Amino acid sequence: MYLHGFEGSWLNHPFWRRRFLLEKPADLTALLDSDVIGVLIDTTKGLDLDIAPPAEPPRAEYRPPVREKLRRYAASPTTPLHGEDIARAEAVRTVNGAKHAIRGVLDGARLGKAVETKAVLAVVDNVSAAVEKNRAALLKVLRLKTKDEYTYLHSVAVCALMVALARQLDLDAQTTADLGTAGLLHDIGKMAVPLDVLNKPAKLTDEEFALMQTHPEKGHRLLERSGDLPPMALDVCRHHHEKIDGTGYPHRLRGTEISLAARMGAICDVYDALTSNRAYKAAWSPVEAVTRMREWDGQFDHELLFAFMKVVGIFPPGTFVRLRTNRLGVVVDNGPRSPRPKVLAFYSTIDRRMIDPVAVSIGDDLAHDAILGEADPAEWAIDATVIHEIASRHARG
């Protein structure tokens, strides 16, 4: 068969290519053992489903795919799992519980019922605990959502991203919890939008888009009726589509007229939307999403976006950064399968001089270097063309 694309997270497929003719038994084995939940095939370039697939090569012992192990663990926590499998299994249980709870809240809102505050706060508590325990595992599981699950899991994902970003900014516990609540309920106004518009698998007409743009105000009015939600949740619901340059909606707020919470909500909402499969588009990779978000001048708070990049551990190639080890460097492409960003460090901030370039792996622990922030080349009298040339030379090997 000719593989045209992979369902689920871009992290889970074991190949460096996205589209190719599946011919080798070893490639089939790798695909079956991966976390890929489905594939798209092009029958004009390869076999269709009515042709039997090639047999798997014999194996010395049977090793169940990760997703099968997760199903066993979810059904019986006594099933032996280790390391990353345990972290992912626990994240799956958290996500499934949150999805069930938020489905009840949002479906109730569609029927005109008031928001069940206790159910919302319980979800926020569970998601916050999961972020604290293993943020990476939770965020990875939340990227694996089908088109049918998007409405519910998008709310859970934005909740988790808001909590993680709040912790990155060292906000206090109550503010962090309120931001999680805001993330969970930010799109509740979409429950007042007709389903044929909300799930339309094509570009909206001007009239349909105008209808879609009413969801922040409709959501705000719905949340007002509950009377016991944090004001921050109402603010984010109403203003998460505002833009720094004043071109957003519904009130065309500009810059700091937009609250910190709403600016955070805008980033978390767009990132999860871009990296999810939707009725009308396939998911972008996290790197592609962050790269494009940085290019959209005037849409997001630049400093908050960089803090968000630290949360998801993604720094687009070409970004000029300051490292914990008193060096400056440029982020270089580390390949789609690598879990860690890589920086080519070439300048000492202590000696204020160029040094021999060295590739540095970025991580969350003291065993690795860390990115502290984005650097301004002009501040260090470094020509931007020099940065580009160093990165290009590294790419050429």
Describe this structure in words.
The protein has 397 residues and is of the alpha+beta class. The chain is 46% helix and 10% strand. A hairpin with a 3-residue loop joins strand 4 and strand 5 (327-332). The protein is globular. It has 14 helices and 8 strands. It has 3 domains: 2-63, no CATH class; 73-310, Hypothetical protein af1432, CATH 1.10.3210.10; 317-396, SH3 type barrels. Mean pLDDT is 86; it is low at 51-63.
Q: Which superfamily, in CATH terms, is the homologous superfamily of the largest domain? A: Hypothetical protein af1432
Amount of helix: 40-55%
Strand order of the largest sheet: 7-6-5-4-8
Number of domains: 3
Short account of what is shown:
The protein is of the alpha+beta class. The protein is built from 14 helices and 8 strands. 46% of the residues lie in helices and 10% in strands.
Topology (elements, then pairings):
Blueprint: E1 2-6, E2 20-21, H1 25-32, E3 39-41, H2 66-75, H3 84-110, H4 117-142, H5 150-168, H6 173-185, H7 195-198, H8 206-212, H9 215-226, H10 231-239, H11 260-274, H12 286-295, H13 302-312, E4 320-323, E5 327-332, E6 342-348, E7 353-361, E8 371-374, H14 384-396
Antiparallel strand pairs: 1-2, 1-3, 4-5, 4-8, 5-6, 6-7
